[in-house]
Predict the 3D structure of the following.
Amino acid sequence: MARQSPDPIFVLRGSNHPVSCVKFAQDPSTHREHFLLSGCTNGQVKIWDLSTRRFTLSLDGHHGQGILTVEGLTDGQIISHGRDGCVHIWEVADGRYDIKTSFTSATTNFCPCVMWHQHGAGFLAVSGGQMSEVRVISLKDHQVIAKLLPPDGHKSLGMPMCMKFMDEKQLLIGYEDGTVALWDVSSCCIMSESKVHQEPVMCLEYCSASNRGISGSSTDRLVSWCITPEGNISSYKEMALTNPGVAALTLRADSKILASGGWDSRIRVWSWKKLKPLAVLTYHTETVNSLDFSPWIEGKGHLMAAGSKDTHISVWSLYNDPKT
Amino acid sequence: MASLSEIKSTAQKCLTGAKNVLSTSKSAKELCAALEQIANLLLQSGDSSHFKDVLRITDLPSHDSELAKQEIHQSNYVHFLNFLCNILSFEWYGNFGRSQEGNRLFNKFFLEGLPQDALLVLCGVVQNSSPSFKQKKCVMLLEEFFRHHQLQAMLCSTCDVLPGSTICQSPTAGSSRSLAPSGQRSQVMTVLATLPDRMANALKKECSDFFLPDHFIPMVAKEILQTLHYVYEKLSKSENASLQFVSELIGRLCIQGHTERIFGVLLPQLLKLTASDFVWSRIANRIFAGAPERSLEIILEYLLRQCPWYGYVSRLLCDAVLTNSKINFLLTNKFLLLRHFADVMFPQNLIGYLASSPTRRHLILKVLRSVLSTWGDRSAVKHTSHSQHAYLTMVIVICVGHLNEAEKQKHKGDLTTLLMGGVEAHLESPILRVRRLGMVAAEIMATTLDPSGPKLTFECEEDEESRLLWSLIKPPEDPGLDSLIKEMDEVALVPDPRRPGGSQDPLDPRIPDALNKEEEEELDSDDDFEPYDMSHDTKVTKVKIPVYVRDCIDGLTARDAPELTEASLKVAEKLIRAKPDDLKDVSSQFAAILLHLEDQYNTDNFRYLRHSAMVALAVNSPLETSSYLTGEFYNRNYNIRQRMDILEVLAAAAQELSKPSDDGPCPTASMDRSTELLNPQGHGLKEEHEENWRDIVEKRIESKTRRFAKGPSKPAPSPVANRFAPMAGHFFFPLLKAYDSKLNTMDLLGSDFLLLGRLMYTLGIIMYAAQNAPVCRQMAVSLLDLIWSLRYHTEQYVRQSLMFAVSMVTLSVPAHLLVTDLQNDILECRHWLQDILERDPEPECKALAGQTLMVIDSTVSKELQCKI
């Protein structure tokens, strides 16, 4: 008899609006404590203290428009991307907060910006003004260093839906028509593309160690693909879901566990190696919009946060015991 | 110059002298000399100078001498052969001593003379003598006779037509040279046709392999073939020939049952030969058309069965169907309407033959019409066996496939009329297979006759039969004679040594490889996380799934809420099986709703869900549900489907109720459970304590007890109350109530025989389920009465269901009742079953009757043995 499905270790209820994104971040002051960032559809970004389980700060800078993504930078800065077409970089310290820098992005789509940063340098990829355009912006000097636009005559890819940096030079973008494309940022050209879905790509995740990626769509299929040594995207495995629609995909830092959040309000947990289903977590009653794993926290292990349309954020601890 | 009579008398004298020598002399030399002399005199092979020497006439012109020789031969040859056989004995033959000369001369008389005479004499001797040297010698001579191809010589001689006769090859021109006396001719024919039998009769166990039919008849066939080649040569030299004897001989052999042996040799050769030469076609045609009428059916059947393509048939038969009325009858009537063949080749060859020439083409329409009207005949549909019917369907499809566009256009109207009537008759049939045949045939004909017209599609699934029928619509193409002949050779010669080794070698190492790989992967998975229970990962529905029976009822009746209705239907069975307390109150309402439920939203598995919910209801609330359902069965305003459902539910519920179940109301068990529930905590503790001391005490007692024998090691099965016994009557008797009353919507004894059959099956099942109930006897009596009144029902389906019910009665009633109270009924049933076994047109019915009889007999005989 299999073990009973686990429950969340705690739930954050303070957000009064549907939660659109969650992200773990390090406390800039101690660098040991972790807190959780969340964004709601009313444009507020909240910072949650994981020990008191209450929010400590609420940032409101997107004119009531929904937050697409939020991310903490190492030096205590926070990036938030809203549907108002702004990417703000916030400076937060001792209860004070203000917007340090802002960028603009397209307002017509839902593609959250993604970031690559290492050794102080960082890039931000945001959707641009034209239909399928994605811009890559340097965080240092705020210059647009690349404009990724399919060449003339290329079949229409539709809006970008989700993105993921493979490394500083390579960017994976999932498009509205179901294509996943691998872009070379420096030369601004598509290295490989594959129409892995029939419907828009809702979310994608990639692991450089195993050279495999996975993407979800509005259908009841999760498609895993790998990037061949020649740099082509080729389909690897398909997993059937009980209910269609995947809103979020996230991979744990140790590349062992994959979690997917579905439109059916369930979180599905898979082993990354063989993509074996491990658990189905039922707590939420509405679509799970966002999932994030924390890095390894002493005494707690990897935590997983899930933000849902039902305004709750649930926090889980899964497969942290080395024996199981 | 000697006159003919003088020569004759000289010859006679000569013969008498030699005969004297032969019967009296004991010297080998003298005997040989005498034989030599007569051989010169009587054998045609002898040089005519020898002949003249013997008669000491030298001045005779050669023509006269031939004539004289013939005369002498005719009057003396048979006599002399008989004489030789008469004096033949071990002692006499011993006179030849060791010289082979005598032996050779003796044999020469039989092997080089007129073959038919020799054959008749030898056969007569073998048959009329008892086992002796003489008989053995004659058998040997007979074998030699055939080995020396004397038969071929004889057959060839029968084919020669006297130069005077003008009619070529006609059967009436039987004035062939040597077999003129018709008596001898038919004698030879009979001897040849029955030789294996004659030999076996005369020689009993001593019969040599040579005369076994398996060897002898193919040998004859080969001789016939040689003869045919001879005839072919003659014809190509534009000489006349008669094939009548050969043809008759073939016919006779076929009548004797040697068709396969004869044509196994002849047919492949004829196929090969007719392909290239029209003269051969004429020869073949002559053979088939000239065969005796009695044998035609056998020959044609074999031909149509074995020919690989209809083109060959038409080469062999030419227009025989038009000239020979018997062949016409066979091909256009008997083979189609009175007989049936499982092999697809047969009708394909037959119809293809009729269609392949413009001269025969009118026949195909005639055939199609007659077959179609038989096929569509209501009584034929009902009374012919299925295999016959399927054959007719095949024939129709093949016929339609052969029609050309002009014919289709011309006859579309009347064919469609015939077809539609037939389809109607088929759709009325209660037997699924017949209905399917009708539908498939109609689809095929409709699309073929009028490809551009409106499509006729029945939504029936494809199966083997329908695929076969669809494939028949295309006339088979010429498989190619070359390949055929090659095939024949290859099959016989090449054992194909490459295949077994070649195909396995590359495969073998690969399979374990794949396995290993799988295993390795299985082993080195370091992320072997143990999955959690995922059973709650179900399809999301937008509606609340009912938790109570009443909610479920509401959900089922809700309007315009497809998801709610579906969800309710899906959980209905589970809710009922949970046995809520108020189930009794709502069960008849629930049953009514389920019975009237329609598949409005195209739910998956609708029928299964509805059925299982109703069965659950009938099991858990049997009295209420069964009385409702049985009452509704004879009510108005139901369609056949619903009534069938009622019957199916009752049968399934009866079966389930009669099975002993674990959760049955076993009194002691329920007691225990209730006490446990009452004081769950304290009781448990106490019991643990109690068990401890009890264990200790029992162990002590056990250690001090000596046992000499142990009781049964297995505990007896715990008794469970039969849940069906008190309910059986409620399930059964209401169904018998009104079967003979006629409703507007249902007429069991008339057109709704399908329902009647289903009813009988259901009653049988309920009967069987009630086999241990006290009410069983009354049920059996009523059921047998019902069966008796319906026993000669015209529908096969109903008869089968009745037989099923009879065997169920036999199996469920206590056996002693069968030989006491029910004896008369059972005896009557047996008579009826035997009658079916003998007379029923449907083989399935017959088989079932046989089985039912076996069931009755074995049960009764077991019971009687017990009594004794």
Remarks:
- Confidence is low (pLDDT under 50) at residues 164-179, 489-524, 664-686 of chain B.
- Chain B touches chain A through 15 residues (CB under 8 Å).
